Amino acid sequence: MKTVTVRIEGRVQGVYYRAWTEQMAHRLDLDGWVRNRRDGSVEAVFSGSDDHVDEMVQRCADGPPDAKVTRVTITMKAGAPPKGFKMLRPIRDGRRRLRSLREGRRRHRLMSVSVPNAARLVIVVS
Question: What is the pTM of this model?
Answer without folding.
Answer: 0.65
